[in-house]
Specification:
The chain is 76% helix and 0% strand. By secondary structure, it is mainly alpha-helical. It has one domain.
């Protein structure tokens, strides 16, 4: 339970950091690239076995993590495009509703239990995520020509979570969790650095120290978010469908409550209904394990 709680706290801090990015006008992409470099460094520092770079390709999970790292930064760019075209609420819903993909993967691929409490809890969790994420009275407004972008964010985010579950279950030894995390982040960092280099050649890159500071804060938090999620998935406290449900819904719940406390955010009645459903869904999924 402690690993799940720590993953939730780390992911919630990521939300706070992104809110502060808005306040201090930090270039999100530049901070994101720094974040991946820092997260990679955290993983390498935490890895307590001798590290020989030439031997990395010998790990069964190595090439999968390279693809996963590419997904990380690719989905980030899709999120940025979706935000510009359809708004932050659409991105929030697409990202958080993607939890249905790893949940279904766990239920069908790993033959996890599907009791009535779990099914009702998961359905309530999805409703809670939607209602809590919508910050406009009229709901979501997406032009037909822009539907592809939130759809890709939904699919990509779900694939990332599902891949993490599959890799940690099938390939990653317990002693290699920190190294696995480091390689994922290093792949994303390399792609990000290439993009920054291209921006520099085109004269579009402007260095600002505040972007580095923001990236460092985000990177440390991001590393522990992934690291503790992997440990939670293998802890046995809940099946993966339960872990992803409780993890995502609790993050939404805490993030919303912190928005009220720290940023004086005003909630609509449907947001409060979403909060209530989130609490009930967590209880149902937890009870389903007993």
């Amino acid at each position: 339970m402690i690993y799940l709680a720590l993953s939730i706290l780390a992911s919630t801090f990521i939300f706070i950091i992104f809110k502060l990015f808005e306040r201090f006008k930090i270039n999100i992409f530049h901070a994101i690239v720094t974040n991946y470099l820092v997260a990679c460094a955290c993983g390498l520092i935490a890895y307590d076995a001798p590290l020989i770079l030439s031997e990395l390709p010998q790990f069964d999970w190595f090439y999968y993590t390279l693809a996963l790292g590419a997904f990380f930064i690719g989905i980030f760019n899709l999120m940025a495009i979706t935000t510009q075209r359809s708004g932050i609420s659409v991105v929030s819903v697409a990202t958080k509703m993607s939890l249905v993909i790893p949940i279904l993967f766990g239920l069908f691929y790993y033959k996890e239990a599907m009791g009535i409490l779990k099914v009702v809890g998961i359905l309530m969790a999805l409703a809670a995520v939607y209602l809590t994420s919508i910050k406009a009275k009229e709901g979501l407004k997406i032009k037909k020509r822009n539907l592809i972008f939130p759809a890709l964010v939904f699919l990509g985010s779900g694939i990332i979570d599902t891949s993490i579950k599959y890799l940690e279950e099938s390939y990653v030894a317990e002693k290699d969790v920190s190294l696995f995390s480091a390689v994922v982040f290093s792949a994303a960092a390399c792609i990000g650095l290439v993009i920054l280099a291209l921006q520099g050649v085109a004269g579009k890159f402007k260095f600002q120290f505040k972007n580095v500071i923001g990236g460092i804060a985000l990177g440390i938090t991001n590393y522990f978010s992934l690291y503790f999620l992997v440990l939670a998935l293998r802890s046995g406290i809940l099946e993966s469908s339960g872990i992803f449900t409780v993890n995502n819904v609790t993050i939404v719940l805490l993030s919303t409550l912190l928005s009220i406390i720290l940023f004086r955010e005003k909630l609509l009645p449907k947001n409060w209904i979403g909060i209530l459903l989130a609490v009930v869904s967590i209880l149902l999924v937890a009870l389903a394990r007993m």
